[in-house]
Amino acid sequence: MRNIIGTAALCAAMMAAGSAFAFECKRGEASFDKPGGFPERALTMIVPYGPAGGSGQVAAAMAEAVTELTGIPINRDHKPGGSGTVGMTAYMAAPPDGYNVLEHIDDASSAHALDSSMPNPAEDLIPLVVSQVTFSQVYIRTNETRFSDWPSFVEWVKAQNGKATIANVSKEGSMERVTMGFITDASDMKIQQISFDKGAPRYGALLGGQVDALFEQPGDVRNFLDADQFKPILTIFDERPAAFADTPTHREMGMDFDPLLRFRGFYVHADAPTDRVEWLKWAFQRGYCEDSYQAFNESKFMTVIDSYRDTNGAKDLIARSIEQYREVYNAMGLDVK
Amino acid sequence: MIENFLAGSAALFGDPFTIGIFVFGVVGGMLFGAIPGVSMLTLAAILLPFTASLEPAQGVMLFAVIYCTGTYGGAITAILFNIPGSAENAPTAFDGYPMTQKGQSGKAVGAAVLCSAIGGIASALVMMAATEPLANWAIRNIGPPEIFALVFFGLVVASSVGARTIWKGWMSVLIGLLIATIGQDPVGGINRYNFGMTDLAAGIAFIPAILGFFAVSEIFVQAEKKASGKYQAPKVSMTFPSFIELWMHKIAVLRSILVGFFCGILPGIGATLAAFMSYGEAVRWSKNPEEFGKGKLEGVISAETANNAATGAAMIPLLALGLPGGALTAMMVAVFQMHDLQPGPLVFMLSPDLIWIVFAAMFYANLSILIIGVLETKTILNLLKIPFQFLAPLILMLATTGAYIGRGLVLDVMVMFLAGIIGYLLRRSGFSIPAIVLGLILGKIGEQNFAQGMQMVHYDLGTYLSRPICAILIAAGVITLASNIYRAFTSIKTNA
Hints:
Chain A is an alpha/beta fold.
């Protein structure tokens, strides 16, 4: 019963937030003249990840919404691998005629921060819209008996002398590894990060007791939260989102660092014709407002905080992320090029 | 359980539109599974947006049916042309294609049809009976160290398949393992052996490598025979395996169901490991292991029973815990979510009707493999009558398309042809192509789980081996390895 009430409250909070964003959305221009007949054929969306993951799903939802709005079909071309670099390289080699768009996540920003020869998503590309922005949390099993909240978790981890474990995607320079670095430094604890590149083994590792905690974004573990199997004990965000009002933030727990956000958005090549870019901006920003896309974002916990950034907002978000990552990489002694 | 199954069956067959979706899934899965390059995943990705307009049960059921029949579909091209439709059908080609060359294509295809159906039906029945307890057992007892141990054991057991000597078998496995290290390392994301090429950072994709090693190298071999006047077209045989032949392999079928089910239940592992492991077990338990890779019916039976047995098993962590076992089951999560549902324990409480329609549909989809498979086989076998000079370019064209279409990278086409040339040269020297592919596919899974396991035990091998299942599998692997080496030395002395 507690679970059902909790879930209902969570959904109500999310729906309220979602409705508010949707209302803002509908005030934009409802139509936009096609510049010189563009587009007169289907668009191609390069997605640097597989169809089943978070990127694949957001790409499908946005493609559907834009097609609903404009009647223009969008073919999704998945090019997974190399933490998004394969898809990015393929996109940069595609004709910059506006017919090719790119879906990408914050990994593109961190890759550029580490190696400036990689495309800068705010300069070499034009963000059409960032349609998902989310924060991370640390989760434990709901039936965990060794600790129950963040202070008791930290105390327990310290007692293990570095033998406690947390599952995440801890690739070199990733948002997860950098954030965990912030957390362990600020909490003065050592914890072994276990890198799982796929969600299912990562979540299974926590469920089955193979690891002690999990670092993840709420939308990805929503079914475990709804089923009362996972419990968030720390929100890595500046304030408590209404949907997680009972979970303390890292700042409340005495950790003074700016949270790195996970964001997913859509881009077009910076050399694409300006009038076509304007049409694409309208289509994707309005696509975000379509009911089908809003419903999708709600199902993914993406309305808990403001997930929407227009082109300028996205550029700010990317620029800040790159700066932040670069500072961290330098402090970590990584070879920043 | 029986009442629920009957209710699910009634719901499935009580509505003409639902029946239409079921039939579409059965036929679509078989077709997309059979064409190299495209796969059941391609079909699923195309259909994903359309499932939003279906009832939740229809959407999930469609994907479940595609999963069952798509896993079987690739067996036909693997047997007839040495072109596995997907990675889980690769072990089927190890013995299936040599059987075709020996004029036993009907027997191989018949066994694949029957065993796919048996494996799938058996796992569907276990899935219906014990989804929740099995899923909970698996996630509590099987972690990265156990999966690595399983892979190690599988590599040791199957290392000698198709090689002229055990040493060449192991060299072949090591070549496969070496190829598997190309690309980003699975834990730290550090680039290895990509020589600055971005596309190589993603590693060598399985499908182009499999197409090259199997299909392209085979065309080179046959072309050489044709040029030297030694080519003999495979005889078209419509003879299915007799009941007695199949009954003689009952133990292999049972073993393969167990292995397939065990591998399928592990989140993120699925049918590919199941088929390879089962094939390896068949070799290990055989009195004549040297016959594998040369056209042994048991090889086809083991691989095809296991990969379909893994389909029902893979649904267990998905439905009971919300943990998809592979890409297709991950897409099923998206189908659930499109309808405001979440797979996991709650779905059993909130949507029992949906669950039982899916269970029933998977049962009947596996049964359909048997019926449609038998009907289609007689037609498909006639493809072998196409003369080599027409068939070879057709296969090359199909393989090239298949290699490119997966990721849209020219690199993959280059990898396919390079693998074809290397495969051709290595085959002439007595190396084993199946063992290379085994190393390539299991190497990636094994490395990732070894690294994760070592992190979990804080790089302490003692702790690693203190996990009982892990210790047993590694000990069994070491004993098998030692016994193989002993046999190899004994054989050298005997020959001397």
